[in-house]
Design a protein that fits this description.
heterodimer, A: alpha/beta, six-stranded mixed β-sheet, four-stranded antiparallel β-sheet, globular, B: alpha/beta, Transcription Regulator spoIIAA, 2 domains, 12 helices, about 75% helix, elongated
Amino acid sequence: MAADNDPIIKVRGLKNAFGEQVVHDNLDLDVRRGEILGVVGGSGTGKSVLLRSIIGLQPPVAGEVEVFGEPTLDREETETVDIRKRWGVLFQGGALFSTLTVSENVQVPLREFYKDLDPVLMAEIAAYKVVMTGLPAEAGPKYPAELSGGMKKRAGLARALALDPELLFLDEPTAGLDPIGAAAFDELTRSLQRTMGLTVFLITHDLDTLYAICDRVAVLADKRVIAVGTIPELLALDHPWIQEYFNGPRGRAATASIERQERSSAEMVR
Amino acid sequence: MNADFTDEGGTLRFRGSLSLAQLGNLPERLDQQAGARTLDLSGIERIDTVGAWVVHRHATRTGAEITGLSDDGRHLMEQVQHADEPVAVPAKPASPLRRVVGEIGDATATAGRTMLGLLAFMGATTIAFGSIIRHPARFRFNATVHRFEVVGVSALGIVGLMSFLIGIVIAQQGAVQLRQFGAEVFTINLVGRITLRELGVLMTAIMVAGRSGSAFAAQLGTMKLTEEIDAMRTIGVSPMESLVVPRTLAAILLMPLLGFYSSLIAIIGGGLLCWLQLDIPPVTFMQRIREVVPITDLYVGLVKAPVFGAIIAIAGCFQGMQVEGDAEQVGSRTTAAVVQAIFLVIVLDAFFAVFFTWIGWI
């Protein structure tokens, strides 16, 4: 068992390439236990490819990836089952199985790994997970085609959380959600992380999400992670892309809204 | 450590890790417990939402009180309790008799609606053809030529092979039967007439329905799912004109060519068998074919072919455009396109047979 202060995800010297086009070159990244790590980067910098490499869907050209202290690359699927049980992944579009209802979708991992579980309990677990992610209870028997984009994301999250994982991968969870829904999603991620001790690997473009819930932010650029740190730490760096990202008009708006919130909560305390 | 509990005079003391992986048979054992007033969770190592749910469920059922949770644990328990909403119970299934009758009714209604829809789609395709004739600039020449290649040229190999084998089989089976009357020479009549009149075009239609009708349905269905067709409409490109017309036109024009080609290859196959098995030399075979096959047989085949082509293309495009919702629909609609096309082709073929006999092309 890995010690508690070991990184939960350790990426070393990762290189990904599609033909001639190199996406990552010599990329290093550590994710600490219990943190919410935001991953940002311009479009096409390979954020999703990085996620796919870590979870083993995209075999890299070179490099090492360790999750929970165990290597995930070049291993048989049967060997990594114990690792897979301990993580949940939310894909960008939800990636729900279209022939199963929402409730059945959530039960898929349970059925796969805990066959002996009482079917009634399984249905109950699926039901409360669905409600926990902010969907109405009536959504359970619906098929993915009957849900809106935001509801699909929530259902996808419910499935990712089915096994009460220790590690959660979220690929742009708030993209395409309305601001209220996005804020609720952030709140949900935060509270799950607190109550269940989750580690969250979060790919996002949403500056509000970054400010609101991320403990640290990793910046992908020039084919590697150019910086990891809290937002103030990143702002202290003199990298043009980081400066433009956080100090552009949208970045300033997000900062301002966070400051406003902090002021108003401070006033309420007074 | 696995989750466990002990009953201490009205208090259930939980131990171990109340988590999904280490739950074991705790839910079943807990179900048999009743009468405990307090559920003491102070001794547990870890709790996740599944553990919290099991405890919460027991507490609601028996009215017991949950104590001894840490702050995080209490927060988790509150979240789980908060998420406890009555789950909609699925409706009770109807009696088998009602279900069977209902299903027959549903299937009949669906079949009727599909036929109406197909008819409407045929009309829409005709209108699209009409508007292209009025505005020839809107005709997609390149797309149509590309369809020619996909529907026609790429099918030459498989259609040829199939026809050749069918020619051989007809000649061989015919020769065996006709030999009983000493009339082997009529094998030539059999091969020549049946391939040109019926089998050449019919087998080609089945092959084209399987190759191209299914492809049309799957292409259009996927485009429907990925909202490409909606995008076309918003840009102002008519999907009927840009997708359906080129495909239908390609099928209409290529079916007679493929059918004729198929008939020829089948005759060659039959002739080869006659030469090898019945010792009829190719020259005699060809001479006899010209004598016994009336030119109307060729017309019968060539008149039917474009109609079959239109049916196949329209059924394929129609089913593709009906796709809504999920990926499974693409599959079921593709199947429906092929089944519908072949069925309609055979029904129409029967009508044609009666019609041509009636006008005296026998």
